[in-house]
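Lecture notes, unit on protein representations.

Consider one protein chain, 118 amino acids long.
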Amino acid sequence: MNAGTARPGGTASYFLIESKGNWAGPDAGAFLLDGAALAEAGHRVRVFLVEDGVFSAVGTGTPGIERLAAAGAEILVDDFSAAQRALGGPDLSPHARLAGMDVAAAALTEEGCRGVWH
């Protein structure tokens, strides 16, 4: 790990973008669990759900979202993707918040942030 990607204490910052829905197969859920594992290891993790990935944050009790939240990850839902699927704030997990692409762009341009799109 080079010095440009490390945070104090040797941890990294990750911005994970999930575009696949829950029904897209085991990889969709596995990606969220990978994010939770990174957060549990002490890394800064932000998950941005876009396209059909927004369905992962609908309702309460979604295992991937619950584990991410418990690990301290920030869970963001693309406001445009949610609106295109007739989802609003009340439809989402209390652990998630709506955010625009400007938030994603800012995060991805932060020094040392590692972006991963699934």
